[in-house]
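README, section 4: Worked example with a bound small molecule

Sections 1 through 3 covered apo chains. Here we extend the same pipeline to holo records, where the ligand is supplied as SMILES alongside the sequence. The molecule in this example is S-adenosylmethionine. Nothing else about the input changes; the structure line simply encodes the ligand pose together with the chain.
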Amino acid sequence: MRQHTVIQHTLFDEHDFLNIRFPKPQYLGAKYIHCDWIAQWIPDDVKVVLDAFSGSQSVAFMCKRLGKSVLSNDFMKFNSEIGKALIENTHEILENEDLNILFSPNSDPSYYNLMENIFTDLFFIREETAFLDAFRSNVRFLENDYKKSLALAIMNRAMSRKVTMGHFGHTQALAYAANPERVKRNRSLIRPLKTIFMELKDDYNEAVFDNGENCTSYNQNILDLLPTLPKVDLVYFDPPYCDSHADYQSFYHLPETYTNYWKDKEFINGTKRYSPKKVSGFDTKKEIINSFKTMFSLSDNIPYWIISYNDRSYPDIDTLVDMAAQYRQVHIERKPYHYGRGGKGSVAGSSEVLIICTPLN
Ligand SMILES: C[S@@+](CC[C@H](N)C(=O)[O-])C[C@H]1O[C@@H](n2cnc3c(N)ncnc32)[C@H](O)[C@@H]1O
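The generated complex, written as C-alpha cells:
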C-alpha cells in the first residue's frame, strides 16, 4: 500500500454557514459526531461533493454548510426525503397554513389506512397509527415537493423518537412505553407524535438554507447512479458495514413504508417489515466485494474519495485499501472509540476509520 501525506485544510472559512444547525439524527452509523474530523480531509478547491450513502444526511449537510455543491444519495426513500428537505431545498419551510392542512382529518380513509391496518399495537397505539394515516393522506395537498419532503422527514424523525434505540428492528416500543423506568429516561415513549412533530418542526425549518450552489438529493442504488452523474470532485463513501448492522431495511422499514406508502408489498415477520426488499449489494458478504470493485471502477473519474470504515467489518480494512489502491494513493486516519458510542452498533474498543484517497501521481 502506498502511503501519502494529505495536506489538511483549515476548517470553516468565510463561506461557511456556521450558525445553521443540523437537526440531531438518531440513525445507525450516522457520522454526525465525526463531521468536523471528516471535513478536515476535504481539499479547499473541491467544489462538487457526492455523499454516496447519505443516510441521515449529516455529512451532506456539513458539506452544504461548507459552501459545496452537494449531490446526496441514499437508496432508501425516507433518507432521500431528508435530503430533499434539507440539502436540495433552499427556502421552503412549513408554515401555519401547512400545519392546518397536515393536521386535518384523513382525506381518504379508504386508501390511507396502511399504518392503522399493519402497525396498530405493534409500534404505536391505534390513535397514533390513525393519526399517521391522516397526516400522510394530507401531505399530498401541500403546495410543493419541498414542503412535502419536510413534512415526511419530520414525521419520520418523530416516529423514531417513540422507539427505544430509534429503530424498528425490535418490537419493544409499546412494552417500553408501559415501563415507568424507561419512560423516565425517554419521555417521548409516551408523548403523542403530534407533540413531538411540533417540537421538531422549528429545528427543521431553521435548517433550511441556500448556500448559493446547486444541491440535489437522489434516491438510487449508488451503482446505478454513479455512471449518470455530471462532474464530481470528491465522493464520500459511508457504506453499510457488512457483518455489523448492515441491514438498514430491517431497522428502518417503518419510515420507508410510511414514505412510500406501499400497498403492493407483503409485511412479514414480527416487525412487519416490507417484502421483498430492495437490492443493496452492500449488505451481504456474498455481494460486497464485487460491489466495492464495481463502485471503485465507476468512480475512477472522481479525483478524491473519502471512505468511512470500521475495523470490525467485512471485508477487513487491508482488503478494502488494496482495492482502492489500484486507483488511488491511500492514507488512513483512525479515531478510537473510548466510550462505545457513535458508529454502527456497539463500537467500544474499535476505531472509526477514514480511508483518504487522492489521485495517483
Ligand atoms: C452507514 S449508513 C450512512 C450514514 C450516513 N453517513 C449518516 O451520517 O447518517 C449507510 C447508508 O447506505 C444506504 N445504502 C445501502 N445500500 C445502498 C446502495 N446500494 N446505494 C445507496 N445507498 C445504500 C443505507 O440506506 C444507509 O442509509
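What to look for in the output: The chain is about 35% helix and 15% strand. The pocket of S-adenosylmethionine is lined by residues 27, 29-31, 53-56, 58-59, 73-76, 79, 221-222, 238-240, 248, 280-282 (CB under 6 Å).

Section 5 describes how to batch many such records.
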